[in-house]
């Protein structure tokens, strides 16, 4: 397609992109690199140019993947030495690999945890065991009308349907009434007016708000913050509304944890993307006497993490196919060996120094990973 568009009859004397004067012998603009052609685009030109770009990227992609897999540390060394056109950009390549990895990872996470649904006694009659006298049936139905459905559901979730069937009527009545009373007592016991909260220290005030909002939500099941804050006669501040919404979110995640897991996993590629620069800072400190600047350590960290995603992504694929955990176990040992070889080649130190720094680096990685995970979980929950 480019050959057709670059023939002499379509060449111009000015670059259409940067307006640099050109000779008819110039096939490309020496300033911006655009093809020297005045031919109008057709549908054929558009699609051919699109696929040409894809295949051109694939060529670099295949070369990058091949070197990354079988030559630990070489791609990073080539890149910092200026051999960059032959390889894909390390940051874009990392993002592509991480997104594919977490898509595969999502297939292996068991997100089908069935949660206890609220029980409607009109639709779920098994509690009325066969042979139960009519008088006792009527008594239980009166309990349903007198007590909140939430208290009955809590009794069912705590004891289980089968154990409830075997209980006498008096025990069922006591359990439901006790649960209903405890919900009311919890809400009343935790009630604190806004004026009193305003006099507390920050942490005590937050603890009091959370306890109160949780008790109120448990009793009333009101999820709208406007209604809840108004009912509690608290100030309609942005912080009060945000805190009540977080209490509601936490209650939702307790019932359906897969919602937050899905949300958090979807953000992990970007969380790790911002975590790696911090990790690269510690690599720089560890190799302070070596002739590498911070950016060169960062490139090595991105290439290594990309290899991690590729290796474990392949392990997950094999695990899905054969339904066994040994591919992931094998990937652990392969990656550790790969990391050692990569450090040895990239930094050019002897075996003893490389092994020692390898152990220190892994310790630093796990400590930072734990800290980053805690911060990321809190941040993800706060903006959910």
Q: Helical element count?
A: 16
Per the principal axes of the C-alpha atoms, what is the gross shape? extended
User: SSE order, as H and E?
Assistant: HHHHHHHHHHHHHHHH
Judged by helices, strands and strand pairing, the structural class is: mainly alpha
For the residues shown, what is the average pLDDT?
A: 75
- Which percent bin holds the helix content? over 70%
% residues in beta strands: under 5%
The structural domain count equals 4
- Cα-atom radius of gyration: 32 Å
Largest sheet: none
Low-confidence stretches: 1-5, 110-132, 144-167
Transmembrane segments: 91-109, 268-288, 300-322, 328-347, 359-383
Organism: Christiangramia oceanisediminis
Keywords: Membrane, Transmembrane, Transmembrane helix
Protein name: DUF3667 domain-containing protein
Write a structural description.
This protein has helices at residues 2-5, 43-70, 74-80, 90-108, 134-146, 149-159, 161-165, 169-189, 194-197, 202-220, 225-231, 238-255, 257-286, 294-322, 326-347, 351-383. 18% of the residues are buried. The chain is extended and about 85 Å long. The chain has 4 domains: 1-39, no CATH class; 41-111 and 256-384, no CATH class; 125-184, no CATH class; 190-255. With 384 residues, the protein is an all-alpha fold.
